[in-house]
Structures are given as structure tokens and as C-alpha cells.
């Protein structure tokens, strides 16, 4: 398939305002397809709006650890309570707002997902290829990734850490984390994403400004016991 501009998104986490900011710019610069590295839900409170915003786009998606939490939470009320105490009511909102079909689709997303566009081989992941819940930070030892096995790909996309990253495996394989659309942790407030040009093989990183104050206020109102949910959005 010939697709030149790919928008790489991950860790949206129910933050529709941040996603709207990214998609507006992606449309303006001619992005033709999205690669979504999981965690569409969790933490924040607008999962239905997130799915509605993504619906018109051509896209490929994998599940993240919050989709796996959603799957277990559907059938285990005690687990859902534990998730809420630790992460807030984002998973509760997903169960409340989304249809059974939408939840089934999210929970049934693959991981990892090999793709090919314009002759570029891509592996789309959330954590590491072998583990949805493995954190690969910018300063991580890559030995756990079995990097040699990944050099057949031109691009390996990971998410989960909420930290943007670009590293090189072998001679040519790019390992890229676009950062988090919905909850940045690198002390750069905004909605993070990346753009991959299949013609040149170049990756560029972007951070879109949006008004996160209303979401901060909602998080503080809903979860005064979890100040991190609000504070992280504006942390510098």
C-alpha cells in the first residue's frame, strides 16, 4: 500500500481535547493514515468522543494495557474498583459510555501488529513487541527487546511510557515512541505525536497546544484524592 504520511499516536487516554488538537494538525499537513499505539481509554473521561474523532480516519491500532484493564474490568467488579482507586474513573467511563461492540473491538485489538506501507516494514506496539505492559524508556537497556530480531523492520513503534523517543536499532531500524497524546510525562504540556514519511524514512516529533484547564478542573472535581491526574497535564 502506498501511504506517504503516517501520523503516529499513542496513549490518548480518553482526552478528546488533546486528540482533537492533534487531528486538526494531522489533517492540515496531509496525514493519510494513523498508527495508534494503544491506551485509547483510561485516566480521563471522554472515551466515546475519542472513538468518534478517530472514526473517519484510515487507521491501524493495537491494544494497550488500559484496554486489557478494560477487558478484565468488564467481568470483575473488584478489579474495576482497584483500577479506579489507582487510576481514576477512566475505565468506568469506558464501560458506561461505549457500546458492547465498541468495547469488544478495543479489547480485541491485536498486539503487536506488523504492517507495510510504500515498501517500509513497520511493527506497531504498545509496550514492547513481546509484552503490552513493558516500559521502554529513552534510556532503557534495549537488550530486553531482542533488538536483533527487530531489524527486519524499518520502523518499530512503541508507546506506554508517555515519553517521546527516537533510537536506532542495528543499521537502519528506527525505534520510535511518539509520546502521549493525552497525558504527557516529559514536562512539556500539550498533545504529543509523531509524523513518519514513508518516502524519506524521516520521523518528526510534534506537540500541539490545547486548553487543558477544563480537564484539569474536571479531574480535580472527580478525583481530589488523585492530584496527579490534573497536575501532570500542566507539569513543566
Automatic annotation (TrEMBL):
Matching InterPro entries: Ap4A_hydrolase, Calcineurin-like_PHP_lpxH, Metallo-depent_PP-like, Pesterase_MJ0912, Ser/Thr-sp_prot-phosphatase
Every Serine/threonine specific protein phosphatases domain range: 62-67
GO terms of molecular function: phosphatase activity
Similarity comment: family membership: Belongs to the metallophosphoesterase superfamily. YfcE family.
SUPFAM superfamilies with a match to the protein in the record: Metallo-dependent phosphatases
Domain of life of the native organism: Bacteria
Protein name: Metallophosphoesterase
Organism of provenance: Denitromonas halophila
GO CC terms in record: cytoplasm
